[in-house]
Amino acid sequence: MDEQENPNIQDFFEVHYWPALDVFYAAMKKYDEAIKEEKDLADDNPAIIELHRALEEWQKQLDGLYFVQKMCEDL
Fold first, then answer.
1. Looking at the chain, which terminus has fewer C-beta neighbours within 10 angstroms, N or C?
2. Within a domain: residue 2?
3. Is residue 47 part of a domain?
4. Which domain range does residue 28 map to?
């Protein structure tokens, strides 16, 4: 499928998905840096544990959107 057939899907990914992915990677980088600095605290810190869960959920959602994009390209 080319962009002219369904520009809404392409627009969605340009406007929402790719910027969200950039933010996700920046958040993961900051998370990894914080964990390295505070390794002893990370295992017992409820805020760090919740952040880790939130980042995992965010990644699942982004992966799902990417899968939808690939399916739409095959239509």
1. C
2. no
3. yes
4. 7-73
pLDDT digits (tens, 9 = 90+) for 18-35: 888 888 888 888 888 877
| Per-residue pLDDT, 5 | 57
CB 9 within 8 A of CB 72: yes
Q: Give the alpha-carbon dihedral of 61, 64, 65, 67, to 10 degrees.
A: 160
Within a domain: 1:
no
Alpha-carbon span 66 to 48, nearest angstrom: 27
pLDDT-flagged residues of the chain (< 70): 1-7, 39-43, 75
Token couple for 60: 């699942």
